[in-house]
């Protein structure tokens, strides 16, 4: 796995202690450690205090750090983001939770017109180093108001960074890096992986640089690229292809803005084929930008057209989410098609 990692210098070459966490446990641990490390960090949103959030990502934090550091807000996304921007400009490190990514609409203007632009409009005199955490994507029978994947809206906005992890290790390292950074970050958490994704997480303090992807599986026949909630199915598809003698290289972008162009282009130059996977609707999907960059840089090296496997251009269907989401079968079929050119 390709990882850019920051950790204490005194670790040396000794193997660090790790333990198994779920993705949501890794998020909670990152928040706890950053609250303890930096008194400027505050965590707030709807029900994040006493209840600990709708998915319990902030459970226990208010009891540990008090109501001035971890607190509930009114049901107003515009005010949640507006308060976060004001705090950030005044030197604090706010981490605001929007209960579902679908609910970010009322705070959209604050995000794209204020948080994203404050550095530019002030000539660098002010910055807004805030993090907006939000559960994203489908797969949990949430219906069309609790299952959307709106990352392309924010990836389109200069001044914002956009992140979506798929493993506990990445969830913790990327969130800590986002909190410590100097820019506003939209941090999407794939809710269907909250407790389904489990993995080893080091006990030492570490961060993962935003903008660095990870190679989950090496191969030379084609490149499979995804991020967030689709990654388990991407890896299942790669495993199935391997059983048929096809070795796919699997890349997890982890960060959409910035994204790891060098890693992607290096892999596709080697394999000559690329299949891009996400669960957002097909039209204006973020992966369309990745596809364009690939064909622009490697047009004469491609052995097949770049293809996408995505959600459909419909509202998220409650009863047919397994059809809507790009499963391993649909991903594998796209890979087989790419191999037949």
From TrEMBL:
Cofactor(s) required, per the database record: thiamine diphosphate
Pfam families: Transket_pyr, Transketolase_C
Entry keywords, A to Z: Oxidoreductase, Thiamine pyrophosphate
Keyword Transcription regulation annotated: no
CDD domains: TPP_PYR_E1-PDHc-beta_like
Chain ranges of the Transketolase-like pyrimidine-binding domain: 21-196
Keyword Oxidoreductase (UniProt): yes
PANTHER family: PYRUVATE DEHYDROGENASE E1 COMPONENT BETA SUBUNIT, PYRUVATE DEHYDROGENASE E1 COMPONENT SUBUNIT BETA
Stated name of the protein: 2-oxoisovalerate dehydrogenase subunit beta
């Amino acid at each position: 796995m390709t990882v850019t990692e920051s950790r204490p210098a005194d670790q040396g070459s000794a193997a660090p202690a790790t333990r198994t966490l779920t993705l949501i446990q890794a998020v909670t641990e990152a928040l706890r450690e950053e609250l303890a490390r930096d008194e400027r960090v505050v965590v707030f949103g709807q029900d994040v205090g006493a209840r600990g959030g709708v998915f319990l990502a902030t459970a226990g934090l208010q009891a540990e750090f008090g109501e001035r550091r971890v607190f509930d807000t009114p049901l107003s996304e515009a005010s949640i983001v507006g308060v976060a921007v004001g705090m950030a400009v005044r030197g604090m490190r706010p981490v605001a939770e929007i209960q579902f990514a679908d609910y970010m609409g009322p705070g959209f203007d604050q995000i794209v017109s204020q948080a994203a632009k404050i550095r530019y409009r002030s000539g660098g005199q002010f910055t807004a180093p805030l993090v907006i955490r939000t559960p994203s994507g489908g797969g949990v029978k949430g219906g069309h108001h609790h299952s959307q994947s709106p990352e392309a809206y924010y990836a389109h906005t200069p001044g914002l960074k956009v992140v979506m992890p798929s493993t506990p290790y990445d969830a913790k390292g990327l969130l800590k890096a986002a909190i410590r950074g100097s820019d506003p970050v939209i941090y999407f958490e794939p809710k269907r992986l909250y407790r389904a994704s489990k993995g080893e997480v080091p006990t030492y303090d570490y961060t993962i640089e935003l903008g660095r992807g990870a190679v989950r599986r090496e191969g030379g026949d084609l490149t499979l690229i995804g991020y967030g909630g689709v990654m388990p199915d991407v890896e299942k598809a790669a495993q199935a292809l391997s059983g048929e003698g096809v070795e796919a290289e699997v890349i997890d972008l982890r960060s959409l803005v910035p994204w790891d162009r060098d890693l992607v282009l290096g892999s596709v130059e080697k394999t000559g084929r690329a299949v891009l996977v996400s669960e957002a609707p097909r039209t204006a999907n973020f992966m369309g930008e990745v596809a364009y960059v690939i064909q622009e840089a490697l047009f004469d090296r491609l052995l097949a057209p770049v293809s996408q496997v995505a959600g459909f251009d419909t509202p998220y269907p409650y009863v047919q989410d397994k059809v809507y989401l790009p499963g391993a079968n649909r991903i594998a079929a796209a890979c087989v098609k790419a191999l037949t050119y």
